[in-house]
Every structure is written in structure tokens, then in C-alpha cells.
Write the C-alpha cells for this entry.
Amino acid sequence: MITEKSIKELENSQAALTLTLDTASIEDAYSKRIQKYAKELQIPGFRKGKVPANVIERKFGEDIRTESTFDAMEDALKEAYKDLDEKDRPIAFSTPVLQDEEKLVPFKKDSDITFTVVYDVLPRFDLPQYTGLEVEVPSVEVTDADIEKEVERYREQNAVVKTKDGKAEKGDIVTVSYYEIGEDGNPIESTKREDFTFTLGTGYNFYKIDSEVEGMAKGDEKDIEKSYTEADNIPGYAGKTVKLHVKVTEVKVRELPAVDDDLAQDIKEEYKTVDDLKKGIREDLEKRLENALKNEKSNLLLDKIIAEVSFPLPESMVQAQLDSQWRNFVRQSGLTEEQITKFMEMQGSTKESIQKDWREGTEKEIRTELILDKIREKENFEVDEEEFKKACDEQLKNIPEEDRDSYKDMIRNEMQYAKVLPYLLENNTFKENGKKSYGEYMEHGSED
């Protein structure tokens, strides 16, 4: 059994837990392990299960003592965690690390053992002021120009696409085949792409070669040398110059429909006229703007709150989030992890360098979540009991009744957490500053 227990707060959101395990518990674990092996081991000269304990102890005693003692220490840790305050328990991502193991082994017979493990805990911090704040936000309105731009987008969507003779221009649909050229002048096979289609001027192509392809016609091909910066947002390419061979295999042009009642009716059945279309567009844009401004207010307010508090994050928590982002990045790329890793290596980039670029944003996300959760805990928002019961019934229908209590706590916490941002928006002031159109705002956000 545990005879002594102490917890010490360390820097960087870590804690050290020290336990003393009594002799009786250690020797009991050792004896049980000897008896177990006596029944299981096959030793020449003895029938299985009939090996004397003293023979087992003589041949394997030290190894068995090491194994049984470590197991007893692990069991003691599990038991100790149950009695700790939530703030002192290791977080899910953290693996406790045994300290000074070399001073503990070899384990001695008939001796107590005092050992220490270090692990990550949730950061400890005091909440800054989070109500009664004033935050400046842009003043935004949907203009006639915004509506006309949306009408043009609908025209684009309803355009008839036809093959075009002659040079490709901005807005044309081009199909290209390309590959990177290595330093030896030969194609880099892994970068080859056949018949990739995109619209000139959109930038919806990996190498951002819109301006270079503009002016080429079907059948034209050429080598392009292009340098990239951080602003291009191409993982692994910032600061690099690459040489590409590009061939245009198809050029198509969109023929736009007239803005008339027929177009309105093609877009949505309830639209009978162009006026109906424009009215519907205005209502839709105003709803989008309302949601965008709500997000803007939330982000600006959270930035102001976060700026007033600083605390170290557990490395295990940050790394777990970075690894999750990496898995999402690989999945969205459409490649295997091995393929994308090899591709990045050719560009002088690695998983580690990519995660390093992500770290600042990831740490901000984690801090935000921790602050919001602490506000949830402090405010202890009321939850509608009927909604809570309904959520439990839906989410726990496959969970045995005796195991549901801990899950119910999680569901209640999630429902409370969902109330934090609306509470912050309601209990802080937002002052409008400057005027922008919907289009300007959605393109540039709150930046001037």
C-alpha cells in the first residue's frame, strides 16, 4: 500500500508526484509473480506447474523482482491518481516519466520504495476581465454593387462552356499538363500532372501559374521559372525557385446568359423576375454578413481577453494538436503520408518544419479553448434539463447504464461550453468604426 504521497507543482504546467510503497505490498507482488511463473514455466527436470518456487527464485529472481516491482509501482500510481484533485492529475496526452530510475534498480528485498513521476497537468491561471470590455468592429453594409457582383457570379454558374480557338485570357478555362524540371534538366516524375483544369485568374492551381499560362493557346508548351514566398501559402515552397514545363491541352470560354427573368427562374423557382432575384440575393448576403460579423466580434473579443493572460502550455497537449492537424493535412492532400513526406523532402521541407510553422496558431487555439472552458466552469451556466436528457438519450443509447455518469458530465459540460460565446457577446460592448461594403469586408475582413 501507499504509505506516503506528495504532489509538487513544477514550471511549464508540470507536476511531480512522489509515492512511497511499503515493503509488504512489494514482497506480496513478488511472491505472487513467483507462484505464477512456477505454474507456467517449463524447466528441464520438472513437470510443468511443479517447479519449486526456490528454483524459480534462484534462476530468475532478480528479473522477476524488477518486473513485479514496476507493476506494483504502476498499480500504486493508478490508485493515487483517483484521490488527486483534477488539477493535479496528468492530462490525457501526457505519459508520466519515472525520475532517477537508475537509483532505484536493482530493487532490494524487504525495502520500501519511494519514487517520483513527472507529468503534464492542465495550466493554472487566473481569468482576466472578460465582461464589460469595449471592442471596435467595422461597420458593414450590403451595397447595390455587392448584389450586382453576386448576379455576375450566378451568370458564371449558368454560363455555357465552348471550346475556344486562339490565346487563353483571364476567365477562360484551361487544361494543362505539367511537371517540375530537376537540376539535371530532366522531369521530376513525382511532380507530373496530366490534364489539370482550372480557370485563369482564380489561382486555383498548386503552382499559381495563371499569369504565365495567360496568352498560351492549345498545343503551346513552355518552361516557366517561378519563385515563391510565404504569401503564396504553398507548404515547403517559400523561398524556393522552381522550373516547370507546361503544355496547354485545351482552352474553353464561358458564354454568359443575359440578366433577365429567365435567368432568375433558372436560379430558383420562386424567383419570377430579376427584382425577385436581387431581393433574394440581398437577404442571403445580409444573413452571411450577420454570421461573419458575429465571428469577427468573437475573435476580436477573445484576442483582447487572451492578451491579458499568459501561461505555459503542456508540450504534450500542443504536440497532440499538431499531430491531429498533420493527419488532417495528409488526408486533405489526397496522398499517403509516405507520398507527401517524400514530396516535401524533395523541396527541403519536413513534417517537423511544417508543424513548426503551425505552432503559434495552434498554441493560440489551445489557450482560447482553455480560457473559454474556465469561464464555463466559473459561470456554471444553467442547462435546460429536458434538452440535457434528450442529448443523453441520443448520445448514450449504446452505453451501459452503469457507465453513463461520467459521459453525462461531459455532455453537460459541452452544453455549458456552447453558452460561453453567446454570453461574452451579450456582456461586452462593440463599437462600430469605419464603413465597408459587404464585398470589401468579406475580401479583407477587418484589415484596413
Remarks:
- The mean pLDDT is 92.
- The chain is about 45% helix and 20% strand.
- The first strand starts at residue 2 and ends at 10.
